[in-house]
Fold this sequence. Notes:
With 438 residues, the protein is mainly beta. It has four domains: 2-171, Trypsin-like serine proteases (Thrombin, subunit H); 179-256, Immunoglobulins (Immunoglobulin-like); 261-348, Sandwich (Immunoglobulin-like), CATH 2.60.40; 353-433, Sandwich (Immunoglobulin-like), CATH 2.60.40. The chain has helices at 94-101, 164-171; strands at 2-4, 15-20, 34-38, 48-49, 63-68, 84-90, 110-113, 128-133, 136-145, 156-160, 179-181, 190-194, 206-210, 220-221, 224-227, 232-241, 247-256, 261-263, 271-274, 278-282, 284-286, 294-298, 307-308, 311-315, 323-332, 338-348, 353-355, 360-363, 367-371, 373-375, 383-388, 394-396, 399-403, 408-418, 423-433. The strands form ten sheets. Strands 1, 4, 5, 6, 7, 8, 9 and 10 form an eight-stranded mixed β-sheet that branches. The chain has a five-stranded mixed β-sheet with strand order 19-26-25-22-23, with no helix packed on it. A five-stranded mixed β-sheet has the order 28-35-34-31-32, with no helix packed on it. The longest helix has 8 residues, at 94-101. The model has no long low-confidence stretch (mean pLDDT 92).
Amino acid sequence: MGxxxxxxxxxxxxxxxVDVHAGYDPNTQANDVAMLRLNRPAPYEPVRVIAADEGSxxxxxTPARIIGWGATQxxxxxxxxxxxxxxxxxxxxxxxxxxxxxxxxxxxxxVCAWDGTHDTCQGDSGGPLLVPDGGGFVLAGVTSWGIGCAxxxxxxxxxxxxxxxxxxxxMARFPRASFSxxxxxxxxxxxxxxxxxxxxxxxxxTYRWDxxxxxxxxxxxxxxxTGSLREGLRPVAMEASALxxxxxxxxxxxxxxxxxFANAAQGNTAYxxxxxxxxxxxxxxxxxxxxxxxxxxDLDGDGTFETPGATATFSAVRIDGPVTRxxxxxxxxxxxxxxxxxxxxxxxxxxxxxxxxxxxxxxVGKRIRFVxxxxxxxxxxxxxxxxxxxxxxQARGRIVRHAYRRPGRYVVTLIVRDDxxxxxxxxLRIRVVKKKRR
Length: 438
């Protein structure tokens, strides 16, 4: 094994209790695991222990690391090393290990690592079998037994800490930090909750958080805290500590979903529509993660996004223009992050269409009834009606009466004006003749 630099030992810890697995069999080395209690907490961050559902991390062929101060000569000869040594070697397939050791190898509680050159030896028992875990390592096994040391035929055998029963036994006996995260989005506060475990009553009492990845736990304090993070994979760390001095640290990469960016406008201009008409509104969006998005519109300003789709139809049938309305687009991604964007719709006034009626023939002195016809798409427009009869006389109202005093041909003009300034004019012709004498 290679040498690992170690500072001069100045900190010594005593073992005050040893908890050996009740199922340990010294004849078969089954369940070869124990937990040691120190006389005081050590100010070092412990390596993480593998979970029972992380089998892929120590699959056959995975490069594992072994560490120890044991003997350095094949067969266990020679004194223990004065230096901490390490070596990397691959995890061995269970079938290959069974082929060598037969029934002595129990794949339910044991795992082999071997390259024919490097190995643990006498004095290394209880040391770690480490496998890669992100930028560090995780404890997957404990040095247990083997035939010889660095033997070209017999691999080293390690306690399989990832085995469900052994894993549960270990996990129940040491304090560890962990936390859960509420759905992480950039558009809302994120809740972080400690799920840490301590085997003793009272357990952890203080929880400190590092959100800015500076290695200092000074960003928040508490068992449950809220914070915000930028989108992407963001490192978050938590330190849990107990009054007795126990300390555990956990780090996670939190996947933060970025809210989509919504756009409800058409360039830099508002949508235009005449009262009584309709206009199509079109939205677009960009999602940081490239996810499929859903679109919905609030077209009437009631705060409810009742019209689905990236495009929608705005109706001005019951709107009195000129007026400006706001339409709002809501865009959501599958994890539930949403964003909104608004645009203006300008509803212009449409002038009424006047209809003075058909041409007439009448006699002098006869009162003629004129009825103004009008078509107006404006909703709720108030209209005024003005008649000019062509004989210098006028009248106001939708229905008027008029009698001509002299025969002739006259042009009657109807002027209809709405309360928004829209005007239309229509005309008819009147022929006035003298009354016949009897």
